Amino acid sequence: MGANNGIEVAAGRALSKEAYDEIVPGLREALVNAQYDVTQQRDFTVLVLLAGMSGSGRSESANRLSEWMDPRYVHLRAPDEPIGLERARPYMWRYWQALPPKGSIGVLLDSWYRAPIVKHASGALSGLALQRISAEIRDFETLLIHEGVLLLKLWFHLEKAAQAERLQKLGASKLTRWRVTDEDRWQLKHYEQFSTAAEKILSETGSPEAPWTIIDGSDEQYREVAVGRLLHQALRRRLDTGTPDASVAPALPERGEKQNPLHELDLNKRLDEADYQPQLEQQQAGLARLTRRKRFRRHSLVVVLEGMDAAGKGSAIRRITYALDVRQYTVVPIAAPSEEERRYPYLWRFWRELPEQGEITIFDRSWYGRVLVERVENLADAADWRRAYEEINEFEQQLIESGTLVVKFWLQISKAEQLKRFRAREKTPFKRFKITPDDWRNRRKWDAYQQA
Amino acid sequence: MGANNGIEVAAGRALSKEAYDEIVPGLREALVNAQYDVTQQRDFTVLVLLAGMSGSGRSESANRLSEWMDPRYVHLRAPDEPIGLERARPYMWRYWQALPPKGSIGVLLDSWYRAPIVKHASGALSGLALQRISAEIRDFETLLIHEGVLLLKLWFHLEKAAQAERLQKLGASKLTRWRVTDEDRWQLKHYEQFSTAAEKILSETGSPEAPWTIIDGSDEQYREVAVGRLLHQALRRRLDTGTPDASVAPALPERGEKQNPLHELDLNKRLDEADYQPQLEQQQAGLARLTRRKRFRRHSLVVVLEGMDAAGKGSAIRRITYALDVRQYTVVPIAAPSEEERRYPYLWRFWRELPEQGEITIFDRSWYGRVLVERVENLADAADWRRAYEEINEFEQQLIESGTLVVKFWLQISKAEQLKRFRAREKTPFKRFKITPDDWRNRRKWDAYQQA
User: What is the value of ipTM here, to two decimals?
Assistant: First the structure.
C-alpha cells in the first residue's frame, strides 16, 4: 500500500502482552473521559470506519472500542448488502440510515467501502464505475465533514502470508472454525485482486480532509492500542480546538435583478372553469393509469413542491393524490426540523423519507429550504447554504441514478395575489389555521425570497 | 349488519347538495378548532379507522378529512399487506409503525381489519383463526385506549345493489375506470362472503370501550358530513372531559416475602477460571454455528437482559456478541424514554427495534422497565403498571407466534456483592462512568426492586 495520495501509513509493529496491559488502563480512562465530553457537548458526531482485509481484526477492534467505552453511546453498525426494500434506493441510503446522532460515536464496519472493493476485485464493477463510486463517496464524506462529523478512516492491512496463517489457525480448531467465512476464503484466494482494488479506492478517496490511516492488523495488541490511541487523539483534538471553521463559502454567480427567471413569468395565465374540470379529470386519469402500470413498480417517484406561501401547494397536492392509490404514496410536510432531526446533517431527514420501489413521496416543501428559509432567515451560515447547491445536485443525481423519478415544481404567484389570498383566508373561519404571523413575516421578506 | 354486540348503527340517509353546502363551512371550522386544541395539548393521539366495503367511499372520506383540517397534523396511512422485511414480524408490527404521535390525528384506511376479512371471505383463514385474530385486535385496541388513544372505528357499509351500481358507473367512463381495482371486482363477486366475514369480526371486536359506528356509504354528502360530525363530537368530548380515568387496576396476587423466587436463589455458585474459559469457548462456538445455520434465517431472536445494577449484563452481552456475526445483531440499550418516545404508547419503542428474519436484537434492559423502574419510582400509575403484566405477555406471545425466539435472563447478585462491585468501579478510573448517583439511589430501593 503506497504512502502517496493522502494515505497516511502507520508502520506495523507488535506490542508485547506486558506493554499492552500497562498501556490499556490509562488509554481506557482517557477514552472514557473524552467520550464523556462528546456526549455532554452533543454538538458533533464521531464516525469511525473500520475497513480492511479479512482476518485483519477489524471486527475485534470494533468490539474492543465498544468494550472500552460506555457502550450506550457507541453505535456499532455493520450495514449489510442491500436486501429487500433497500434495493431500489441509492447506494448511500443505508449509510444515511446508519448515521448516529450528535453526541455519540458510530463505529461502522466495512462501511461504504466493502461492496465496491469486492465487486471490483471480482470483476463485477469496471474501473470507471469504481471511479464514479469513489467520487460519490468523496462527496458524501465531504458533506459529513462540513456538517461537523469527525470522520476517522482506518484501513486494516494484512500481508498475504499473515492472512493465510491467521485463517488457517482459526480453521484448525473446532471452536474457532466458525469465525472463517466463505468471503474470508474468497479474499485469500483473490488476495492480489482485492489488494489492488482496495489500493485504487483508497487513493481515490484519501484527501487531506479525510485521510486514511493504515493499521497493520497482524498483531492484536498493537492493533487495538493503535486504534484506541488514534481515536483518543482525534477526539481530544476536536474537543480542544472546537469544530473547525466551515470551509470557505463557494462563490455564487452574481445574478442581476433582470435575470431572475421568476420575474420573467407571465402570472396572468388563466384557465376557464369550464376547461379546467375536464382537463383535470383527464390528467388525473392519465396519472392513475401510469402509476398503476407494472413497469412503474420498478421505479419510484419523488415530487417536490416549493413556492411562496398561499401559492396553492396544498390544493395541487390534493389534486395529485386524488388519482393515486393511498397505499402507494406518502405526503411529507416539511417544517422546521425537530430536536431529533437537528442532531443529524440537514439532508438526513429527507433520506429517511425516500420512497421504495413502486412508491411515491410528495414533499410539501423540501431540502430547498436550506437555500430558501435557512438562507433568508440566516439560520445557516453562508458557507453552509452555498455548498448546499452542490450537495443538492449530488443528492438528486443519486436519486436519478437509482431509478427514482424526481419532479420539482415551483409555484409562483404575484405579491398582490398573495395579499388577496391571505385576506381571504383570514375571513374564512375554517381556513384561518392556514394564515399565521409567520406568513406575514415571510411576506415582508418577499424580495429576499425571490432572490434566493 | 346487526345492531347487537356493541355495534352502533347510524341509519343511512342521503343529504342534498344544498344542505351539504350549508353544513360544511361550520363543520370545517369546528373541526379545525378542535384539531388546534389537540395539537396544542399534545397529550393524546387520535386514531380514526376507516374500514368497509369496496366503493363505499372510505378513501374519499379519508382525503376529505385531510382536506378539512390542517393536513400537517393529519397522518393518513394505508399500510399494505406485509412485503419483504415485514413478513417475519408479528401481524401488528406495521400498525405499531404507523401510529402517529400524541397531538396528531391518524387516519388509517382499512387498518388491521382488511386482511383478516378478505382472507376469511376467500377461505384462506378458518373461523377459529379469525377468532384468534379478533382477540389479538381486541387486546391491541384495549392497550391503545388505556394509553389514552382516542379510537374511532367507522365501518362503511354498502348494499350489494349499491356497490354494483357504483362500480359499474365508475367503470363506464375512461376517466374514472382506474378507480375500480381487481379487489373491488372480487369483493362484488363475493359480496355475501365478504359481508359475513365482516359481520363476524365486527361483532367480535365491537365493545363498549371501542364500539363500531356503521356509516351508510351510498350517499357521498351524507357520508362525509357524518364522518366529520362523528370525529368532531369525539374530539370535543375528549377535550372537554379530559383523558378518561384509567380502568380499575387489575389485582395482583399477593406474594408473601418467602415466596419471592429471587430469595431462594443460591448466589454462591462459582465456576473456576480454569473451567470457565474452555466452557465459554465451547458455548460461543455452539452459538456461532447455530446462528449461522440456514434454518436460522427463517427465525429471529430476541434476547432480554434484566437484573440489578452491576449484575454483569454488559459483560454477558459482550460474551454473546463475540460469537455473532456483526451484521446479524443489534444491541439496544434501554434508558429513560426520549421526548419522542414519550409521545407513543410505552411498548412502541420496543416494537420499533424488533429483528427481521435471520437477525438478533439484544435488549440491555427492556419493556420490563414498566413493572420495575416505573413501578418502583412511581413513574406509572398503579393501573398502568398492573395491566402491563397482561400486555407484556400478549406482546411476547405475538413475537413467538411470528417465529421469533424470545430468551429472557434475570441476572441476580446479592446486595453485598453489589456494594463490592460499586466500590471497585469507583476505584477503577475507566469504569467510573459505570457508577452514577442513580446507581446508589436504586440500591437504596433494593427491597422494592426485589419485590417488583
Answer: 0.75
